[in-house]
Write a structure and sequence with these properties.
eight-stranded mixed β-sheet; alpha/beta
Length: about 280
């Protein structure tokens, strides 16, 4: 782990060294940089992988929200990414975003086209249906809650329906990184509930349609077809994925069988990595 200060805020990031081009990875709304561990292990050392903790998450600062007008124009996180690329001494990167990170990726690639060589949207980047909030609610319910111990916290996470039968070392590491310990042994999530609520009120309720045609980077869209609470409540449906691919010039959609919104990233899926490697190498 390392820290970098941009726009007056300290952001934490994890780096997996590699000799090739830099992949900058952006996580979901209540996630953290360790969501990318599984992918990074398989993409290095051919690539240098850097995964950020967005402000309000993980080890990054939890400042008051951006001014309302900055959030309203969706410029907040793209400004941070632009400053991060500068601070790392880079001109351009391959940008990977999952969920909210994919939405950020859409806006960033449209706003700073010279910064993005290739764009990968992982189960996100589209306008969200009303039922999506209900599907991700169990993962958000941990925010602001005190758990008696790390063990109790992990047991609660393992019991979530979308992790049934899929718990692995990546999920374990991801959630252990998520917690902050207190002197009495109790723990709570390090994700700022205020940051998530602000993002839900802006990013998750905003249409991204005006940004799609401005994207010039080759784009790969990966869709996870499995539902979270039901068989059909996937975050990005096949139809939505096709619409997104048609809206972004030259984009290609790949559906990854047998995975949901979380396990497409936090479980070992050779098909996913093969697609990513082919796309980046082309």
């Amino acid at each position: 782990m390392a820290d970098i200060v941009v726009n007056g805020v300290r952001l934490s990031y994890h780096e997996w060294p590699g000799s090739g081009p830099t992949l900058l990875c952006v996580h979901g709304i209540s996630a953290n940089c360790r969501a990318w561990d599984c992918w990074a292990e398989q993409l290095t050392p051919a690539y240098r992988v850097i995964a950020l903790d967005l402000r309000g998450r993980g080890g990054s600062d939890k400042p008051p929200a951006y001014p309302v007008e900055v959030h309203r124009d969706l410029g907040c996180y793209p400004r941070d990414l632009d400053a991060v690329i500068d601070a790392l001494g880079l001109e351009a990167i391959h940008l990977l975003g999952h969920s909210l990170g994919a939405m950020i990726g859409v806006v960033f690639a449209a706003t700073y086209p010279q910064r993005v060589r290739k764009l990968i949207l992982v189960d996100g980047g589209h306008d969200l249906r009303p039922d999506v909030t209900a599907a991700i609610r169990p993962a958000l319910d941990r925010l602001g809650v005190t758990f008696a111990s790390v063990r109790d916290y992990l047991a609660r996470m393992q019991a979530l329906p979308f992790f049934s039968g899929t718990w692995n070392r990546y999920l374990d590491c991801y959630f252990r990184y998520d917690v902050e310990s207190r002197p009495d042994g109790s723990v709570c999530s390090r994700v700022s509930r205020a940051a998530v609520e602000t993002d839900a009120a802006t990013w998750l309720s905003r249409s991204l349609a005006s940004f799609y045609r401005q994207i010039t980077a080759p784009t790969l869209i990966l869709q996870a077809p499995a539902g979270l609470l039901t068989d059909s409540d996937c975050i990005l449906s096949r139809e939505e994925g096709e619409q997104l691919a048609a809206a972004i010039p030259g984009a290609r959609l790949v559906t990854v069988a047998g995975v949901n919104h979380y396990t497409i990233l936090l479980a070992h899926n050779p098909e996913v990595i093969d697609e990513v490697q082919r796309f980046l190498a082309a």
